[in-house]
From TrEMBL:
NCBIfam families given in the database record: cmk (TIGR00017)
Positions of the Cytidylate kinase domain: 3-206
Organism, scientific name: Phreatobacter stygius
UniProt-listed HAMAP family: Cytidyl_kinase_type1
Main localization, broad class: cytoplasm
Protein name in UniProt: Cytidylate kinase
Length: 211
């Protein structure tokens, strides 16, 4: 069984993907980490994020085993990921890696921006997780404050909201695999939902598709 979960930044898709993977005993891949990995390497080595050729070479040689989730969940890594993910050749280089993970024996749960539309269009269950930009900014703001990356101030929140809106525009407007709701995906708006409520809704969708 392949479960494809898409949605914008900080919508809760990663949390739900992990919960569903644990529930069904399936491997989970946060595909955003792949792009964060490429962006992180670009930044660490001093390469301009708009250098498509270098970013593509890094993507072609990326090893999932080398990804450090904790180091890749920073604000800077997220911004770098959004830039390199807009490069068509980078996305093309990473498609096979993601599809191989999705089609492994027994299935998998993947979350990202183009799982149900590009990576696993034949997935048995597809979910599109969303929430208002303000709520997603609040979630990201609390996360970043908790990690000590930014200060708990109105200006800090305004910066996070601006970043969320900028990433939304970039993800939805890029030419290569833009963020879209798959025609057969079920949309879950988590703006007013707690984690348990959102998980129950997601689980109900997957169970219905399994039946």
């Amino acid at each position: 069984m392949i479960v494809a979960i898409d949605g914008p930044a900080a919508s809760g898709k990663g949390t739900l993907a992990k919960r569903l993977a644990a529930h069904y005993g399936l491997p989970h891949l946060d595909t955003g980490l792949i792009y964060r990995g490429v962006g992180r390497i670009m930044v660490d080595r001093g390469f301009p994020l708009d250098n498509v050729e270098i970013a593509t070479t890094i993507a072609e040689n990326l090893d999932l085993a080398d990804l450090d989730p904790e180091r890749l969940r920073t604000k800077d890594a997220g911004e770098a990921a959004s830039v390199v993910a807009a490069h068509g050749p980078v996305r093309k280089a990473l498609i096979d890696l993601q599809r191989a993970f999705a089609t492994q024996a027994g299935g998998a749960v993947l979350d990202g921006r183009d799982i149900g539309t590009v990576i696993a269009p034949d997935a048995e269950a597809k979910l599109f997780i969303t929430a208002s930009a303000e709520e997603r900014a609040r979630r990201r703001f609390r996360e970043l404050v908790g990690r000590g990356e930014i200060t708990d101030t109105p200006a800090g929140f305004a910066d996070v909201l601006a970043d969320i809106l900028k990433r939304d525009a970039r993800d939805s407007g890029r030419a290569a695999a833009p963020l879209l709701v798959a025609a057969d995906a079920v949309t879950i708006d988590t703006t007013a939902l707690g984690i348990e409520e959102a998980f129950a809704a997601a689980l109900a969708v997957v169970e219905a598709r399994r039946r």
